[in-house]
Amino acid sequence: MSTAAIIPAAGFGLRLGGEAPKALREVGGESLLVHAVRGLKAATAADLACFVIAVPAGTEDMVLKQLEPYCEGAHLQVVAGGSERTDSVRAALELVPVDGIDCVLVHDAARSFVPVEVIERVVAAVRAGAPAVVPAVPVTDTIKRVDRDGRVVDTPDRAALVAVQTPQGFEPSVLRRAHAGEVAGATDDAMLCERLGVPVQTVEGSEDAFKVTRPRDLLLAEWLLAERTRS
To answer: Quick check: 106 and 89 in contact, CB under 8 A?
Structure first.
């Protein structure tokens, strides 16, 4: 059995700025999307056989040509994404083969430098029987819950909080069932599984799997890439 990877990369990243879609912004001379695909492919224990990338309409051929050198041995498909993340994942999921795939990863292109061991932990947990798996790191800030007027309502126990990352891994039929239901307001695919009552397992994430969202995140990405190159 093999793994399929879905990368929703159709967003323009308004907070990041610039003219190019966020996933096509460059770090070290290569796009975030290239870094993300290459990182997934490096996780050899995941047995990645299929990549489906959802991109802004009109960029499909360009992205296909850009990514082909990094997907050797795996089937690559590029599809136009939608206005919402869930639209993009759903469009990509329709192209994932039904047979021969025992794990589907959904990965943000903006988390381009997730370590190989995190990817492989997610896949291993799905193959061990978990229907939905997310990498997570402890929350270090004190978190406040506020009302619509900005007044603090309470302070959740930080020990019970984690920040989740991607790739998130799923048993294929679970992910399809999750996207067949109500998706409004969902910020990740695990949330859709939670709505179905599907248990979501966490595995250890990594600080290196940060999300490039704002301009200074690009500086951190450049530094991280330089550190990895030196080592």
So the answer is: yes
